[in-house]
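Limitations
The structure tokens in this dataset are predictions for the assembled complex, not deposited experimental models. Users should treat interface geometry with appropriate caution, especially where small molecules or nucleic acid strands are included. An illustrative entry is reproduced here so readers can see what is and is not provided.
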Amino acid sequence: GKRAFIAGVADDNGYGWAIAKSLAAAGAEILVGTWVPALNIFESSLRRGKFDESRKLQDGSLMEIAKVYPLDAVYDNLEDVPEDVKTNKRYAGAKNWTVQEVVESVKKDFGTIDILVHSLANGPEVSKPLSETSRKGYLAAISASSYSYISLLKHFLPIINPGGSSLSLTYIASERIIPGYGGGMSSAKAALESDTRVLAFEAGRKKRIRVNTISAGPLGSRAAKAIGF
Ligand code: ZID
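Predicted assembly:
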């Protein structure tokens, strides 16, 4: 069977959860990466059976998540983490959640993966038009929504089995004007799409690994509701 790591699952409403279910139904072993501030509530909801109804697969069995890894994909390693985040109450309780540390843990626990899914994005100024977006907000959107994918692929590449596959989620606002998708999120998706082409070339040459991005349709996820979509 194949093993998949899905980054960006913190409830049962988003694309990450739905993709995990499809992969589980196809027989894959499921590992997820959950944003650190959302970790406790996600794990306790899982444990208390709150997701049991939506864990149901077509054949009546429940999706199993082999392991939940805390992850903050805007930090590549511990040296990147500022002091105020390190000591933040929501972060101090978890450990090994930078991209490099998560990949080291997955390697230690499971050895390799076959499928990497990036289902995460964040744009703190998404509700501001691009022309009113701050430098800080713009760079934060790119860091969380675009570079996070480069970083995950870069660190996972050595432990993705040849012939494996990698996927992210994009949005048509990269190409067309969609008012309301501001804060540099349209730019972040344009970068993600361009990077997908370049990374497909590089990872294909290096390890026969496919790199794709899917332009998603509307889904009432937590992220979509937060921006009023
Ligand atoms: P989600 O909230 O389920 O997933 C986002 C996850 O990212 C959450 O679990 C967060 O905790 C996590 N996260 C945020 N920051 C970090 C971080 N630094 N480190 C680790 N995790 C983090 O929402 P989702 O399922 O909507 O989002 C998944 C992907 O789908 C994202 O790349 C979206 O941009 C993409 N996507 C979603 C939609 C949608 O409708 N839900 C659309 C396009 C792309 C879209 O907005 N018409 C109108 C709107 C849309 C499409 C068509």
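Some entries come with short summary sentences. For this one: Residues 3-226 form a domain with the Rossmann fold fold (CATH 3.40.50.720).
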